[in-house]
Amino acid sequence: MVLLLVAPPALAEEEETLHTWYAQALARGGAGLNVSHFWSKGSKLRAETVVAGHKIITIVNGEKYYAYDGLTLEGLAIEREPAVVAEDRTDRRPFGNEYAILVEQGAEVVREEQLIGRPAVVLRITDGAGRRELWVTQDEARIPVRLEIFDRRTAERRVTDYVNWQSELP
């Protein structure tokens, strides 16, 4: 018996147009250093970070959000709100969208500079919560390079550097 598996034409076409992304984020602050990895294909997302010696894996896929401990394999699956699922888009990254968020909150460009070898635009917003500064690439993708947050309530400073951005991965 021969079994032939063929994707329906519509699915095959959809697969060809999905964009892929990868980035590594180095976050540091009062809790120490945290390293996270993000992968996406279209609106699907996988993130991994180590917390207290356990790799925590987060997967966002359609109507479900999964989070589990890679060591103990214990975790949970959460239904995503239909309105949120409806906003999923395959033409943009499902992570690293701080530029759009800060602009929506009213952030303004304060300067241009080089950061981690890349020309960047720096945006800032200051409000009752504190100050947020974002370094993003100057191209259309607006890839975040650094996010710096000062929390007015706790007087804590947190910095996240996004490194090793890759796109259009096979």
In round numbers, the mean pLDDT is 89
Spatial extent as radius of gyration: 19 Å
**Helical content (DSSP H or I, runs of 4+):** 10-25%
By DSSP (H or I, 4+ residues per run), the number of helices equals 3
Class by SSE composition: mainly beta
Which spans of ≥5 residues are poorly predicted at pLDDT below 50? 1-9
Beta percentage is over 45%
Give the topology string: H per helix, E per strand.
HEEEEEEHHEEEEE
User: CA-to-CA gap between the ends?
Assistant: 32 Å
Mind summarizing the main beta sheet?
A: 11 strands, antiparallel
Order of strands, main sheet, comes to 6-5-4-3-2-1-11-10-9-8-7
Q: Please report the total strand number as a whole number.
A: 11
Shape, per Cα inertia axes: globular
SSE diagram, text form:
Blueprint: H1 9-17, E1 20-29, E2 32-41, E3 44-51, E4 54-61, E5 64-69, E6 75-79, H2 82-86, H3 98-105, E7 108-115, E8 118-127, E9 130-137, E10 144-151, E11 156-167
Antiparallel strand pairs: 1-2, 1-11, 2-3, 3-4, 4-5, 5-6, 7-8, 8-9, 9-10, 10-11
Description:
- The chain has 170 residues and is mainly β.
- 13% of the residues lie in helices and 55% in strands.
- It has helices spanning 9-17, 82-86, 98-105, and strands spanning 20-29, 32-41, 44-51, 54-61, 64-69, 75-79, 108-115, 118-127, 130-137, 144-151, 156-167.
- It has an 11-stranded antiparallel sheet, with helices on one face.
- A hairpin with a 5-residue loop joins strand 5 and strand 6 (75-79).
Brief summary:
The protein is 13% helix and 55% strand.
